[in-house]
Specification:
Largest sheet: 5 strands, antiparallel
Oligomer: single chain
Shape: globular
Radius of gyration: 16 Å
Number of helices: 3
Distance between the termini: 39 Å
Strand content: 35-45%
Strand order of the largest sheet: 4-3-2-1-5
């Protein structure tokens, strides 16, 4: 069994290539937080430290322990977290009822308090999604090139 350490980099195979992410934090309630690294790679790629040093596309909670046990992800090494990385204090979530967008929720990472926002500021548009994605959703989002900029 792979023992998880902050800085571990993993790959996950999608229908469009191989995605990479780095484990950066464990929240006792919601679980492991990962940095989604830019680009998809082809079989035979080599991880250079420059890949891990790039600004992440976004962060998301992911059940990493289960994914490792089920061999959905493969550990590729351990790399320092970029010096300019800071654990975010806010995330965002779209509030949808019966398929209709109602508003955005800005979620405080420490308290889980939600603030309702009708229109996002430029700063809020850069907030990562709140919640946990399973491997199926992560693979889909990576394969389709999902980013914060094309999220509603």
């Amino acid at each position: 069994m792979v023992r998880l350490k902050i800085g571990d980099v993993f790959e996950i195979v999608t229908s469009n290539g191989i995605g990479l992410f780095q484990y950066v934090h464990k929240d006792e309630t919601i679980g492991q937080l990962i940095r989604i690294l830019p680009n998809l790679y082809e079989e035979g790629y080599v991880i250079e430290k420059e890949i891990v040093e790039k600004k992440e596309l976004y962060l998301i909670h992911f059940p990493l322990g289960s994914a490792i046990k089920q061999k959905i992800v493969a550990k590729k090494g351990n790399y320092p977290i970029p010096q300019d990385f800071k654990l975010p204090q806010k995330f965002r979530d779209n509030h949808i009822v019966n398929g209709e967008f109602i508003c955005w929720h800005i979620v405080d990472y420490n308290t889980w308090k939600r603030d309702k926002v009708e229109k996002l500021s430029d700063e809020q548009k850069q907030l990562s999604p709140w919640g946990t994605w399973n491997d199926t959703l992560l693979k889909e989002r990576l394969a389709e090139g999902w980013t914060l900029n094309n999220w509603i």
